[in-house]
Amino acid sequence: MHTADIRLAKDSDRLAGRVPPGASFADLLDAHGAAPASANALTAAVEPVFSSRQMRAHQPYELERTHDGFVRELVYRIDADRFLKATASGPGAPYVVETAAYRKERGLVAIRGDIDREHSSLVAAVSGAGEDVSLAIALADVFAGDIDFNHDLQPGDGFEVVFEQVLREGARVGYGDIVGATFRNEGKTYSAFRYQPPGGKPGYYDAEARSLQRFFLASPLKFEPRVTSSFSYRRLHPILGIRRPHLGVDFGAPRGAPVVAIAEGIVVAARYMGGGGNTVVLRHAGGYESRYLHLSAFGKGLRAGVRVQQGQIVGRVGSTGLSTGVHLHYELKRNGSPVNPVAEHKRHPPGEPIPPAYRAAFEDKRADLASRFVSALAGPPSRSGPGL
Prior knowledge:
Layout: E1 12-18, H1 25-31, H2 36-46, E2 60-66, E3 71-77, E4 82-87, E5 96-101, E6 104-114, H3 122-128, H4 133-142, E7 158-168, E8 171-185, E9 188-195, E10 203-205, E11 226-229, E12 232-236, E13 243-246, E14 249-252, E15 258-260, E16 265-272, E17 278-283, E18 288-295, E19 297-298, E20 307-308, E21 313-316, E22 328-334, E23 337-339, H5 341-347, H6 359-378, E24 382-384
Antiparallel strand pairs: 1-2, 2-3, 3-4, 4-5, 6-7, 6-24, 7-8, 8-9, 9-10, 11-14, 12-13, 14-22, 15-21, 16-17, 16-20, 17-18, 18-22, 19-21, 22-23
């Protein structure tokens, strides 16, 4: 005798939405027809754990409500990392409220990109490979000591990069670390492997175990701007109409673009300086001094005597002082004498190598990363845990 399956009627609905501006948990429950007794019990349990005053507009939430108005579950996304969850087994049962972290995974992904007529910048090449600008910035930071992304890129250059993507419930929510990369520029191939020496900080090293962190960054701007005026002893001044030395490099860039310290140093001055407008002067080791002119704003907390780190924002591109338009004028001096910044940056040697005691461990790590690099580029993304 065949017995048909018995289908039970659905007794609840799963509802979802985004928090309206100024709403409270009580407002959300009322909007979805929660029974007063259930709504009161739930809010009384939730508010001491996570107050409605901490809720943010437009954050997503879900709730399960039975047809008679009992709310079995409420889930509210606090931020990208945490959520609030309140559940009760039935009417009259107490609500259990907790905040918890989303379970996240990391997967390895690899892409290739080329600099060509259609993709003339790093951002365009990375976008053409299906990724976004934050990955382009991270890749530029890795090779910032070797490649000036302002004007060194040319057709025929290209890159391969293996990086972590952060997944939550199967969907990507961000990028992790770049674990390995190569960049072909002007006929030379640069490589980078992420490695953390025992007791030290993670960093990037080339195939010869030399740190990619140079004394100078290749440029005081991340990338995308263009050189509008080079270092010269006889440049025709666009405003004064006379030939005079131009002892620096001008970069055309959008107003407000961040300007960073090319090396660790001490702030000598951060103030308005006549024709230079808002100017930052930094003193570095080895008798070097860098200057950043025509800024629209200074970096946060910048004042004479403050120590800044390499890559720290010292100002924003502007057009203050004697300037014909928005740009950054950048100067470099050595022992008080002006030097060509572009040539001086290229003259500096590679970074410090990994100490001999850790060289074997680095070689093992490099071989492992190289294997992952080849595997990831050859096939679909591979899964791995954090801490690569």
